[in-house]
Amino acid sequence: MQEDTGRKSPKYPLSMRILHWLRAVIILGLIWSGWYMTSLPDSTPIAKFEFFYPNHKQFGVLAWLLAVLHLLIRWQKRRVLPQTPDGLTGWERMLSHAVHRLIMTLTLLIPIFGYSMSSSC
After folding, report:
1. What backbone phi and psi angles, to 5 degrees, belong to 41?
2. Which of these, 121, 22, 116, 120, lies nearest to 69 by C-alpha position?
3. What digits encode the pLDDT tens for the residues 81-113?
4. How far is CA 11 from CA 3, 52, 91, 112, in A?
5. How far apart are alpha carbons 49 and 53 in whole angstroms?
């Protein structure tokens, strides 16, 4: 068991934490609404699609904008961000950085792909 040294562990800035969780909630909502829309039968009234489809697009754009804002804040505050924990081995450190970059890349690319798909029809 580790003893408490009384030091606070460094945290990410509040703005980044808020953006992180806001984006997470929006993305989970987008995943749910996308699955829900694609599972609706063809006999579903058009009014239901007219509610979900535009909102899905708008929240996708919002998720993209929040991701860009998050990256800008991250770049601006890069000197005060917490470091990777020392207890991680080399492969754990590499994997955590790779997964983080992959998630950020997907958060930026998927809304762009969705927007390009919907505007090409």
Report:
1. -70, 160
2. 22
3. 888 888 889 999 999 999 999 999 999 999 999
4. 20, 37, 23, 31
5. 6
